[in-house]
Amino acid sequence: MDNTEIIRTIFGTLGNVISFGLFLYPAATFLMIMINNGAVEEYSPNPHLATAMNCLLWVFYGLPFVHPKNIFVVTINGMGLGFQLIYLSIFLIYATKKRRSYVLSVLAGEAVFLTAVVLLLTLLCAVVNIITYTMQLHNLRQAYEAKSSNYMPIELLLFNALNGGCWLTYGLLRFDIYLVVSYGLGFVLGIIQIILWFWYNNPEPKDQEVEVQRFLPGTKRSNSYEKTWDVENV
Predict the structure, then answer these.
(1) What b-and-e string marks burial along 156-175, b requiring 16 or more CB atoms within 10 Å of the CB?
(2) Positive or negative, the Cα torsion across 12, 14, 15, 21?
(3) Cβ contacts of residue 101 below 8 Å, gap of 6+?
(4) How far is it, in rounded angstroms, from Cα 193 to Cα 164?
């Protein structure tokens, strides 16, 4: 662990301790106003609703597959989310029907918002994945026009198809429409490219080979070509 990581760990630990104190601070107020008095009185749930949403987003942000090496962010915000849910649960017990409905509606809205964020990210992943695979159509067109497989390295084609097949199977076992559609398309395109590779698996097109041989430095021209060139330039 280098010096930067040590300092980062120290400040992360210090931040966790301070944040834990801030999350714990409202507990005394809840005990006094609600449990002892049996009513929420004029106490506002809005700070706890906002904090719950804030903690929820930071937990999502700190997950290893989203932003790795942020364990301190995940732990403290996970605890903070737990505290806010406890406070809001106590609030719901002692709140009037109107205020209870308000809190529940806001919590539902937060859940919908987070779900929309996750779905949007998932959709973006699927769209970009599809675009990545469709970019290979250019190679298919080149191979078809040139009647040659030189534009499609067989190793890359095999691993592309294998990758698509693995993730397609993964998505089918516990059906995930985003994985199935995006990697299913990739698998199909991979198989098509492999078939075309075998179909057009031949040396460079003759016309291209002749042109290359004519103009490569140090390449010996054939006598027939030299004679033709001489006749044309008489």
Answers:
(1) ebeebbeebbebbeebeeee
(2) positive
(3) none
(4) 13
Whether 89 shows a pLDDT value over 50: the answer reads: yes
Q: Where does the pLDDT of residue 104 fall: very low under 50, low under 70, confident under 90, or very high at 90 and above?
A: very high
Choose among 125, 117, 21: nearest CA to 60.
117
Nearest 5 degrees, angle CA 118-CA 122-CA 127? 145
* CA–CA separation, 232 and 103 (whole Å): 91
Distance in angstroms (rounded) separating the CA atoms of residues 160 and 20: 48
Residues 66-75 pLDDT 10s: 777 888 889 9
| 204 — pLDDT class (breaks 50, 70, 90) | low
Distance between CA atoms of residues 220 and 234, nearest Å: 22
